[in-house]
Design a protein that fits this description.
Elements (H helix, E strand, L loop, with lengths): L2 E3 L2 E12 L5 E7 L4 E6 L6 E7 L9 E8 L4 E6 L3 E3 L8 E9 L4 E5 L3 E3 L4 E10 L4 E10 L8 E10 L2 E10 L18 E8 L11 E3 L3 E6 L3 E8 L2 H14 L6 H5 L3
Parallel strand pairs: 2-6, 5-7, 6-9, 7-10, 8-11, 9-12, 10-13, 11-13, 12-14
Antiparallel strand pairs: 1-2, 2-3, 4-5, 13-16, 14-15, 16-19, 17-18, 18-19
Subcellular location: Cytoplasm
Keywords: Chaperone, Cytoplasm, Nickel insertion
Subunit structure: UreD, UreF and UreG form a complex that acts as a GTP-hydrolysis-dependent molecular chaperone, activating the urease apoprotein by helping to assemble the nickel containing metallocenter of UreC. The UreE protein probably delivers the nickel.
Length: about 270
């Protein structure tokens, strides 16, 4: 249950997607609390679409937010957000935490495509995303972080992304930026002065037999194969708009097959 305490908000949200037996996807669980409101939106084809709608400001200092999604065998789920998430300083002391947990079964597909996470001046957020996939699962996962709003310095932001396929870790990386972060985060080996950074993870069973080749995409993005049936795109950019364009172009470059035939049936 959600609640507001002297140390911030405690809230969670949960999505369960299940094949409905008629070629579509049902949502037997769609529960949100506090700033994590969930809304089912109209879709065509076999997938269900869910939007995360910010019902209140957050995450603020001291908040503890958890969002989980489970996609069961044969189900197709697309999750987006209605607007960017803005990490803000709050009245409560201490950092905020935002934990995302994703579970995709064999023969299921998840497209996790939220809007950007913006680290506002004075904020302190630790966000973790952990995806657990069965061997035959499919995933397209995008995460984008923007350091500060227009004309302001960033807050402290630490982001950890972990992806496991068939009980094997294929990606586990952490990036910390802003005041108090380890030195060098804004240097030429990391962000090189850019204000936006993003990752795109694509998991398809076919990649196990035909890995994606490593390639540099201009000066600010690269594609690398991951162990097992997965590929990672990493990119930096001066702002959120150009970052999105880089990631969209990279996904297109991976080929329309990365979207899966089921995804291509949408209009």
């Amino acid at each position: 249950m959600d609640g507001v305490t002297a140390t911030g908000v405690r809230a969670s949200a949960r999505i369960v997607a299940r094949a409905d037996g008629r070629g579509g996807t049902a949502l037997p669980a769609l529960d949100g609390e506090g700033p994590l409101a969930l809304r089912r939106t109209r879709s065509t084809g076999p997938e269900a679409r869910v939007m995360v709608v910010g019902a209140m400001s957050g995450p603020l200092g001291g908040d503890r937010l958890t969002l989980s999604a489970r996609v069961e065998e044969g189900a197709r789920l697309h999750v987006g957000s209605a607007a960017a998430t803005i990490a803000l300083p709050g009245q409560a002391k201490g950092d905020a935490r935002y934990d995302v947990r994703l579970d995709v079964a064999d023969g299921a597909e998840l497209r996790w495509l939220p809007e950007q996470l913006i680290s506002a001046d004075g904020s302190d957020l630790y966000v973790t995303t952990r995806a657990e996939l069965a061997a035959g699962a499919r995933l397209v996962l995008r995460e984008e972080q923007v350091l500060g709003r227009a004309g302001e310095p960033p807050g402290r932001l630490t982001s950890r992304l972990t992806v496991r396929v068939a009980d094997r870790t294929v990606l586990d990386q952490e990036l910390s930026c802003g005041p108090g972060a380890p030195g060098g985060w804004d240097g030429p080996a990391v962000l090189a002065g850019h204000r936006a950074v993003g990752q795109l993870v694509v998991v398809r069973p076919e990649f196990a037999e035909h890995p994606v080749p490593a390639q540099v995409l201009g000066e600010c993005a690269a594609v690398v194969p991951l162990p097992g049936p997965a590929a990672l795109v990493s990119a930096v950019a001066p702002d959120a708009l150009r970052l999105r364009r880089l990631l969209d172009a990279a996904l297109e470059g991976l080929g329309r097959e990365a979207l899966t035939p089921l995804s291509r049936t949408r209009t």
